[in-house]
Amino acid sequence: MKVLLLLAALGNGAVFGADAPVLIQNATILTVTNGTVKGSILLENGKIAAIGERVAAPAGSTIVDGSGKYVMPGIIDCHSHIMVDAINEGSVSVSSMVQMSDVLDPEDIAIYRALAGGVTTANILHGSANPIGGQTLVMKMRWGRNAEEMKLEGAMPGIKFALGENPKRRGNGPGNPGALRYPATRMGVEDVIREAFTEAKAYKAKWDDYKAKTARGEPALPPARDLKLEPLVEVLEGKRLVHAHCYRQDEILMLLRVADEFGFKIRTLQHALEAYKVAPEILAHGAGVSTFADWWAYKIEAEDAIPYNAAILTRKGVVVSLNSDDPELIRHLDKEAAKTLKYGGLSETEALSLITINPAKQLMIDKRVGSLEVGKDADVLLYDGHPLSNLSKVLKVWIDGHEYFDRDQDIEGRPKKEAEKKALEKKAAGARGGETE
Amino acid sequence: MTLKAPALMIMMALPVVAQTPGSYVLQNARVVRVSGPVIERGTVVIRDGLIDAVGENVAAPAGAWVIDCQGLTVYPGLIDALSRWGLPSESEGRGGPPARGPEDRPLNASWTKAADQIVPTDRVIQRVRDAGFTTAVVFPNGNIFSGQGSVIDLAGDRAGRMVVADSVGQYVTLRTSGGRGFPASLLGSIAYVRQIYLDADNYQAAKAIYEKHPQGLPRPAYDRALEGVLAAPLVLLPAEQEIEIARMLTLARDLKRKVVLYGGHEAGRGIDLLKQAQTPVLVSLKFPVKPRDADPAEEEPLRVLEFRDKAPSAAGALAQAGVKFAFYSDGVTNPKDLFRAVRKAVEAGLKADDATRAMTLAPAEIYGVADRLGSIEKGKIANLVVADGDLFAEKTKVKYTFVDGAKFEPLAEEPAQRPAARNSAR
Hints:
Chain A has about 425 residues and is α/β, with parallel strands linked by helices.
């Protein structure tokens, strides 16, 4: 914990990348976007400064021997619910007024575990309890820093939508005495979304009218600011990305049509296990798909899934990513990607793209992260073998050129942590014994 | 029954005191003024419920009741900075149909005031007064917008006479509906608080514009929930852990209001943020401990152990950083437990003077009543406690407590057979 406090102190207003330059030498470097390089990669001032067969080490560099080892870009998870103290505001069918940024827990141990699995960036989503959920954001796994410092600077904010069984589960149909709210059917889900955007358009018109009146000098009452409708106006204006939880092809088509009608875009279809059936329509709308490698049949709407989903969509030209949606799965997204080599025959680079550059594109952060290119953020993983092998492990993780995970240090540090804990337990037990009551 | 007699006598004596306030002179006392240096041998004159004079050479006015305080120390009366003393166990305003959003104003009783709910006969009042508490800042509870707190003096037969200030802050919790509509999560509770203050600002602006142009404009709808939040000069937000401190400071910036945090157990870790924001903190004297019914087989994370371990050092860290803070009882009604917690805080690095200040002048300053409470100064309300040593020490006995100039002598320690006596009374 002392180490953590130190890191937190460093993070306070410190320029990211104030660390000494890091030069990884003699490694197999999987850039994802520019092939494989046998050689060195230099991390300096938080960015990737050079990649090549030979790179000179600037003065004061930390040299890492990469012989027999592999380097790849940090993994990006486009669907995660770690590091938050609450996931769903499911009491209402539209909860766009709530913000995941309000409930961040930068001390969630799941962050560190994700980091140990090579994840450097995650899209922190609201749950799927309602057709329109809360406001979402993109975080870097800068373990030890505070919530504010972990936000990926300048990333577009998002919003969660959800279709199908989850949002209608709390519905109010007859014979459902535990009913809490509308909707109870897929028809109702569509209606809620239409209703919400109709309201958002009226809200926007009200503000436009007010601004026009005050500009003319006429007295006018300002419309009340509505935190539920503001993010929906941002969606209409293209300032907020929609991440929509869905499964079946019919509901996917429904959502794309509603979005087209109201004039906004669906940025990603999340899960979308039947997306392979409607790839052309998805491509035409411009949506990406963020799915599972081979996880299905856990509910009726997930029955018609196939492990070829990612490969088929990729071949059809859709931008596809593999996500975790889970604090355990987030620790082995690399192995999830590897499954697409077997199911659908994707190339190694295509498989790695599913967890790096593709989710970066979906989140519109690909100018900064998602591949190893000079000038991009130094979010870099060092593996002891090929990342797509079941036998390989993450050895080190850098974010913005700062080392946030080191496997050896972790293992060495465990007895110390254990002792620290024992000491605190003993102290607490002693204090209790001393109480008079 | 003999036990009850002194208590009855005091209660019967109260109206008399209120009608003909006496004058008292406390002579030869060590006077801890809090607002200035300690007077090692001085006099405090009480008259008509106020402090009439304090100093080393003060003449006793004619007709006053002179009390020789040789070997005794006079402190300002203690203040509980966030309290339920003297209030009914549950405030009004709960219930109603499930809410569909912030517009239904769920869990909102912002317009209620603690001053309107005082129960002068609450037995806790005498118990804590005997230990040196003369004042409590009491708040309605049970809702997200629970209502407005009031500063009350802990003596009096009529609620109205006990009130020093009727509205000093809005007590906000981040509880949820418990499955009965919005908000069902922390996400919703925070969003709700944010929306309410936006609505309140809009409401105020709309009313002002309407007053100027009542013809040709729609009439803004009266909203008691917004009237309530607008009436309170401070917002109290919950923050025990460091991450909650960070969250609430962020929320406070959005609310654009004067905020006080309560809880504060991890203020030590959040000290940089607090120092930067200069937001006062109410520090709970109920330090976190392992629950009695905890599963012995369950392993506790290091983070939880550290949270408990560091809690007593929060006050010391705040004092050192120069962040204003005050202690509060947090549901504890036994003064011995409160003083034990204060001693723990002192052991963990809080200076004794700062501990005294955190229960006298600091809460008065935080709530804007330092011009009448919190220290021994001429003109302030005569709320004093006279003890035979350091107020928080285990062996110290309180000799007298003065509330609004009325003198109280603590009852003898309750003997062990008290449960039996209670049974016979039934």
